[in-house]
Amino acid sequence: MYTCLRPALVAVVAAVLIPATPVAAKPRTVNPALYSSLSWRNVGPPLGGRSIAVAGSVARPNEYYFGATGGGLWKTSDGGNEWSPVTDGQIRSSSVGAIDVCPTNPDVVYIGMGEVELRGSVIPGDGVYKSTDGGRTWRHMGLADTQMIGRIRVDPTNCNRVFVAALGHTFGPNRERGVFRSDDGGRRWQKVLFSDDLTGAVDLSIDPSNPRVVYASLWHVFRKPWLLWSGGESRGLFKSTDGGTTWADLSRNPGLPAKPLGKIGVSVSPVDPNRVYAIIEAAEGGVFLSDDAGATWRRVNDSAGLRQRAFYYTRIYADPVVRDRVYAVNTSFFLSDDGGASFSTIPTPHGDNHDL
Length: 356
Description:
The protein contains two helices and 25 strands. It has helices at 6-17, 304-307; strands spanning 51-56, 64-68, 72-76, 84-85, 96-101, 109-113, 128-131, 139-140, 149-154, 162-166, 178-182, 190-193, 199-206, 214-224, 227-230, 236-240, 248-249, 264-268, 276-280, 286-290, 298-301, 315-318, 326-329, 333-336, 344-346.
């Protein structure tokens, strides 16, 4: 029964559990007895289908979006009590795989089409769409041949500066893939990070204290009806300190696993820009932590529960308030308060968890 309910529930997890404003302050201690009687309830929609993307507004705490893999973009303005489809009749492909809301103007929303959670049945997209009126109307902004977009990240100080992680074609080679950057709100795009025609970008993280610092991961992957090929020498973890113009390959830095590397999720802490988390698909993969902005790393967790079906999950999220708190999503929803050394599970009434 819960298969059709997952999108709303994932959106609620994002809404309830993550404080919206990055404030480097010690969290208050709350007596668990005050909320021990609370329980999850479905807030709809009842037929949303799968969802792999969710985003919220810092300025509007009850406003959230989720992307359905076959049903466009949905929006709530009342914390999930009511959801409405906001892209029907305005977009040419149905699968929304990436969403970001501009932190300085929540009326500006970007969505990327297609799915990077590459199970056997995936729906390709046709690039990037943008709304400047809170989701009421949408305009196609190009990158149509990227097909699968994994992340969109908007500069926290500039709604017109946007990064897109494009995976590219799932079943064959193409050149329109990698990391793209726009400085004019999506009217023009520059490909700023590219490896080869079978390697695309799958994740992005911007340092909110210095938006010129951007982390990105490249993934060498393709499918056939009978196989999934994940991993290669041409992929890995990258960092830019000049807003995406040039990139340094972090993949051979001390502490990271040997290649070939598979899918990589990355997240820089809003509390401490030197703290970076990565979850890496590799023979000696797992959760990795850096306290010097990616110069050196150490593996802090290799739990199979975090690494299973890496092509379908492999996402990690630094908490915006607590430096040592980090979240990971998989068949369970995971929380760590010791920098990833150990994780507990947060119960949700469904299995798959894809975004936060």
